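To: structure subgroup
Subject: Chain for Friday's discussion

All,

I'm putting the inputs and outputs inline so they're searchable in the archive.
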Amino acid sequence: MRGRADASAPRRRTRPPGLVLLLALALALGVGAATCAPVAIALSPGAQECAKCHNAENPGTISVAGETKPLAVDLEAYEASLHGKLDCTGCHIGFEPGPHTAKQTEGWLQTAKLEACRNCHADQFTMYESSFHGTLVFDEGSTEAPVCADCHTAHNIVAPDSPEFRRGILDLCARCHGGRGETFLDSYHGKAFLLGDEETATCPDCHGGHEILPESDPASLISDENRIATCAKCHPGANTNFAGFMVHLNPQDPRDSFTVWLFWLAYVLLIAAVFTFGGVHTAMYIYRGIKDGLYGRKHS
């Protein structure tokens, strides 16, 4: 009969309209049941292969030039870095997933920290190569001078103009130039840096980044020929007198400036004389009071 459902036919289950609407909305937003599972770090396929060993809880350590380094890599920090989408072999040239042979690992640290950077950053590498640091490395064979990864780190590289990088500049340069860091903090720029001013000048703003040269080099940003232009980047109208301000000066060291040291010595002697006179005067006043019985009298 029409109009009456067949009792023998299976009954269709209907979903409440509200549930159907929610499911449709979830699909439209790209939300599905798979989002309940942990989200994998979005590394490149090659990096995912390397992560099988180097993301282990304790993959061990390796000794390089007498320094023990962990083999584990913070993959979350790497994924968030500027190199996070690259394969590990972009820097670790010649490596393949799995146990590494002696041929693969030969000179790997120098390659990964320095030579591999040239492939993508040729302009910056050229500047570094002719800089003071680069001269020490390439011409004098120094193993102490900083190379690319010493300043930019390895697996958590951040943009040089980011607040995170600028906040760490002082500690970065102080690894080799500790005394200069202290005198920087004594300056106006240093005080502003300590107060959290992220726009104030720090080391590379005056000395340069990849093109650091000694003050005696005419091409240096702090040479007599270029110092005014360097100051004018932040201080329009800077002149010879302004740019002649003595930076990184320790007033207690006559080798930095004998004139300033003389003024510092005179200041210390003057302060000592004033306090000595005041102390002697006060002691004599108290002694006279005790002798005259001033402190023993009873006043009505």
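Points worth raising on Friday:
The chain has a mean pLDDT of 82.
Residues 213 and 219 are 7 Å apart (CA to CA).

D.
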